[in-house]
């Protein structure tokens, strides 16, 4: 038996200081472990309990733990989870499949072929974002891995009407839009985490797939898994999104990350009859 555990990272397993959601009194707040440093500053955290649970999960010979993220390879490689490194990782929303840290060229070629056949070019979408965004709230514009584009914005100043119009425009061209924190993503619809997860399951012979995620870009991943979890925060929670195979957790913030790892471990134990 092999169980594949594919989990989104930001605001699912790991949390920035702003996303921790520590609402309890300071003396009873959970101890935290920093798992990412950027420009010599701590950036992302897990609870120590979540880190210990994840270490045990990843060490289980029946488990293939697959970090699954919209981050670029460079952004992903800043993260230092406890325990042994993951043999597989999914980056760029499924556009990059890393095998022992090295991009799989065959997978990248397959992705490029699908995008060319099924949706508008990246250059067209990126140009539209730049042409319609307002300097009053636009802070940065980026292209990630030559696969998708995103804006860094002052979220409070972005009109809802602009996001709605962008979503409709992009949808007509085979693209999806996701608003996560201060970032607005435009991602080709064929570029999915679920497709990459299925490829890893095929290669590893996984008999069961488990998943977790918080954003609209994770919905396909959760639907594709045998069992999945979403935290009590994020785009999916805000939309009250669920599905028969998805458990909606009440916990939010970094404690939701702990609950997700605990749920993964319990599901693996059930599958193996322990």
Annotation keywords:
274 residues; alpha/beta; five-stranded parallel beta sheet; four-stranded antiparallel beta sheet
Structure summary, number of beta strands:
15
Q: Whole-Å distance between the termini?
A: 13 Å
Regions with pLDDT < 50 over 5+ consecutive residues? none
The percent range for helix content is 25-40%
Give the overall silhouette.
globular
Chain-averaged pLDDT? 96
Strand order of the largest sheet: 5-1-13-14-15
The run of helices and strands is EEEEHEHEEEHHEEHEEHEHEHEH
Q: Give the helix/strand class.
A: alpha/beta
Topology record:
Blueprint: E1 3-7, E2 15-16, E3 32-38, E4 41-47, H1 48-59, E5 63-67, H2 73-76, E6 88-91, E7 96-99, E8 102-103, H3 105-118, H4 122-132, E9 138-144, E10 148-153, H5 160-171, E11 175-180, E12 183-188, H6 193-204, E13 208-212, H7 219-224, E14 227-230, H8 235-238, E15 246-248, H9 254-272
Parallel strand pairs: 1-5, 1-13, 13-14, 14-15
Antiparallel strand pairs: 2-4, 3-4, 6-7, 7-8, 9-10, 10-12, 11-12
Helix pairs in contact: 1-9
Structural notes for this entry:
The two termini are 13 Å apart. It is globular and about 55 Å long. β9 and β10 form a beta hairpin. With 274 residues, it is α/β, with parallel strands linked by helices.
Short description:
The protein has 274 residues and is an alpha/beta fold. It has nine helices and 15 strands.
